[in-house]
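Dear support,

I submitted the protein below through the web form. The confirmation email said the job was done, but the results page showed an empty box. After a refresh the structure appeared. I'm attaching both so you can tell me whether what I see now is the final result or a partial one.
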Amino acid sequence: MGTLTKPNATAPRSAAATLQQQRAPVAWLPPEGITLTEWAVVGARFGAMSRLSNFLLGDWLRFANNQWGDSYKQAARITGYDVNTLYKLVSVASKVEVFLRRKTLTWSHHALIAAFDRNEQRYWLGQAEELKWTVEDLRIELRSAQRANSIAQGSSLDATAGAKDAHARPSVALETIVCPKCGEHLVAQGSAQGR
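What the results page shows now:
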């Protein structure tokens, strides 16, 4: 067994920082002399990793399920995520095709529209990206569209008056996704139960 040594107080600061980083693997410690530009580049990478990680895990587990059958328990042991979270990740990754995903939006943006058809997903993700909507902004817009659709369906307008023009919002058919394994509900609007 090796011996533990205390860092020498006269050791260069970068060596002490390296030792500190080894002791704190869940922390980011800035390298000595980092510039504002370098700091910004690191932040952009962290943001991208965060936005991608849920899709990466969902796609990874979806592959395993297709290849070797139900792999949720094994994936939970490997990743440290609970099985219910992994079900959600796979559900969204399965419903939002790769070519529709927007790298500038979070996984939560995509989870809100996962229950919609491809055209509605494209529309809502495009709006969220173009208008720089937060997840809450998207949730509000979806609720507004749902209310508008409910009012339109309840009215006695004739078919021509209710026709959509090319730039109108698509209808929002909010549905609840139920996990076939655990029965957990995922609601397109992101209700407290389905978040």
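Response: this is the final, complete result; the empty box was a page-load delay. The radius of gyration is 23 Å.
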